[in-house]
Amino acid sequence: MDRDDERRARDHVLRELGFTLRRADDEFHGTAAVVPEMWVPGTRSLRTSILATWTDTAAGYVAVERFAPRVPVTLELDVHVYPSRGECAHVRAVSRTVKAGRSVVVAGVEFVDEHDEPLAVGTASFMAARDASLTMQRGTLDAEALDEPRARLQMPFAQRARCERLEPGVATVGRADDTSNASNTLNGGLIALVVEEAALSCTPGATLCSMAMRFLRPVRIGPAIATADVHGGLGRVEVHDHGDDERLAVVATTRTFAARDDRAA
Predict the structure, then answer these.
(1) pTM confidence score
(2) 183-202 pLDDT per residue, tens
(3) What's domain 3-257's superfamily in CATH?
């Protein structure tokens, strides 16, 4: 990794979510404190897009283990959230292999809160990037490297990622050094955020209880434009790469909880 790559990794938006990851035998264990900047606007609920981001990270290391030194790319990712029992202050995650084939790896992630109560479950599938020149050093799997200190998120997640709601049902996020992945395309966690913002803009005061994404092609140029069609809490979202002839990059399905008493005063 050269100095530019190191700087981009250090300054990346997702590092500010404070998720640290450590190998534990055949599993990866993650942990993070939940701060108000991670809440869905108008609530005290952790964003489902952040759980999706952590799923992508924790499951992704399972794929890195299998494909290294090749870079894994996400094919599908889903997150399902248990009904809220109140404000969550801390999250722990365990990621493990579900199935490892020759070309595709599937990993599952279980999340619990500070009371060991189930919070969410996630699943992701990966393949190795077709571009064999994209590689990751084996050292990225070392426990010490995984557990580097992270900066605390200082502003709402969407604001920090420069993700904007353009109108009801439409949201956008750009691709930049601090929002890209190892393939130099828009990080999947930021795609989860723009999907969530598009869906929630149609249902103010609600939170997502599930999100499922199918990745059709990378967002190489950006900005990513998400358009949501929501009826009865069920949303269908399409994400297009605006700078790449509006090519369809991701299709997603979302579902919302009804607004609860965890709304901020």
Answers:
(1) 0.90
(2) 789 999 999 999 999 999 99
(3) Acyl-CoA thioesterase, double hotdog domain (2.40.160.210)
